[in-house]
């Protein structure tokens, strides 16, 4: 008899991880799948970071760390916020966690009550709505489309707010669209939020450094919002450290304290070696990782050009991150070979099974017209994948 909790039964599986697992499974069966589903740099972690980790092992950094992270790491995080984001945080406002995903989960668990509403400008990262659901809150999706470059307007924000709105989860550069809100766009949204002092802002800036030219901005830079903004970041994407699992927040001290308490009961401090390596990563000049950003830029140019050549693909021009989010609704209702494509999920499945290319349906990100393609893959794989897609659609 299955007696799992309502909580887990109602939780959707992470679409990004599920697609990656499916691609892995097919690969293990000997099928030559090209995986463009997972948002994960295909670079190795830079040598100077690996060396710091090896030193930490040899220097016996093997005990529990403080729950909210080593003091010297928290200091380095404060320095980073000052250097890159012009944000002033004290170490007491920092909590280091097992990946930015845990940082986000901590924040939701400590702020949300049943019945609270969480605003999700769409497209949004898959786990936002699932985490809000775990915290027994209700996700309110604010839609956007390729016509507005996948950004929402202040008017839409205003219209979505109700007396139950507690939190907005904001992500720029955005996963899955790659769109970046400009400083003026942030300020326009802030003018709305200023009228609702009971709403908190979670600003997920994990793709900050993977940026092709639009200056990065942070909600917490806006003085009137600083006291109710939680800035989330981590090392996974910029430093090719996805598996090391280190994320962190800068937040009002009372929220940081609550996250510390939550984490203390669920996971304790993050991995000690990964924390030591993170000190090396984020205290290094950003120029040290520019070679990866340059490479992502080159791949963006290639994939956009190639996808634009496929009939029925409407392709956005991402300004950051390493995803492209084409609108493929042209194919809905059409028959390709034996299959009728009803929606984006059918389309993604078609690409997996007929083109052997793994992508992720836009439905998982709150946009039913698109699919997400990660171009954090080699140029060769990108070229082969797109030509397979084109051939399958022919
Ligand atoms: N954030 C990455 C992605 O969207 C990693 C997978 C995940 O944790 O969902 O693909």
Fold and architecture overview:
With 394 residues, the chain is of the alpha/beta class. The protein has 2 domains: 6-44 and 289-393, Aspartate Aminotransferase, domain 1 (Alpha-Beta Complex); 47-285, Aspartate Aminotransferase, domain 2, CATH 3.40.640.10. It has helices at 6-9, 15-28, 47-58, 71-85, 100-111, 126-134, 154-160, 183-193, 223-226, 253-266, 272-283, 290-308, 344-355, 379-393; strands at 34-35, 94-97, 117-121, 138-142, 165-171, 200-204, 229-234, 247-250, 323-324, 335-336, 339-340, 357-358, 360-361, 371-374. A 7-stranded mixed β-sheet has the order 2-8-7-6-5-3-4, sandwiched between helices. Strand 5 (165-171), helix 8 and strand 6 (200-204) form a beta-alpha-beta unit. Helix 12 runs parallel beside helix 14. It is globular, with a radius of gyration of 21 Å. Glutamic acid binds next to helix 2 and helix 6.
């Amino acid at each position: 008899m299955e007696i799992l909790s309502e909580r887990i039964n109602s939780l959707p599986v992470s679409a990004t991880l599920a697609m990656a697992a499916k691609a892995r499974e097919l690969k293990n069966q000997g099928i030559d799948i090209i995986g463009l589903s997972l948002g994960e740099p295909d670079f190795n972690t830079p040598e100077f970071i690996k060396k710091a980790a090896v030193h930490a092992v040899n220097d016996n950094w093997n005990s529990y760390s403080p729950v909210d992270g080593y003091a010297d790491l928290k200091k380095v995080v404060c320095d980073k916020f000052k250097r890159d984001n012009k944000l002033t945080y004290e170490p007491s406002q920092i909590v280091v966690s097992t990946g930015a995903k845990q940082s986000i989960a901590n924040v939701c668990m400590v702020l949300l009550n049943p019945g609270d509403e969480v605003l999700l400008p769409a497209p949004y990262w898959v786990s936002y709505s699932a985490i809000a659901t775990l915290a027994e809150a209700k996700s309110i999706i604010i839609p956007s489309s390729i016509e507005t470059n996948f950004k929402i307007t202040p008017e839409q924000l205003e219209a979505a707010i109700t007396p139950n709105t507690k939190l907005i989860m904001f992500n720029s550069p955005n996963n899955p669209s790659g769109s970046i809100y400009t400083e003026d766009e942030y300020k326009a949204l802030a003018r709305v939020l200023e009228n609702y002092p009971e709403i908190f802002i979670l600003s997920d800036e994990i793709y900050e450094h993977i940026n092709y030219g639009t200056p990065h901005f942070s909600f917490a830079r806006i003085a009137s919002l600083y006291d109710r903004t939680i800035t989330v970041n981590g090392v996974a994407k910029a430093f090719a450290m996805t598996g090391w699992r280190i994320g962190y927040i800068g937040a009002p001290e009372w929220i940081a304290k609550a996250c510390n308490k939550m984490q203390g009961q669920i996971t304790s401090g993050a991995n000690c070696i990964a924390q030591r390596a993170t000190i090396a990563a984020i205290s290094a000049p950003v120029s040290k990782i520019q070679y990866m950003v340059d490479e992502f830029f080159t791949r963006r140019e290639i994939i956009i050009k190639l996808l634009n050549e496929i009939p029925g693909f409407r392709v956005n021009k991402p300004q950051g991150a390493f995803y492209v989010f084409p609108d493929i609704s042209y194919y809905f209702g059409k028959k390709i070979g034996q299959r009728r494509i009803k929606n984006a999920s059918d389309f993604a499945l078609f690409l997996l099974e007929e083109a052997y290319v793994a992508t992720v349906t836009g439905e998982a990100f709150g946009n039913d017209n698109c699919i997400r393609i990660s171009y954090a893959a080699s140029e060769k794989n990108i070229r082969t994948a797109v030509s397979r897609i084109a051939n399958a659609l022919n």
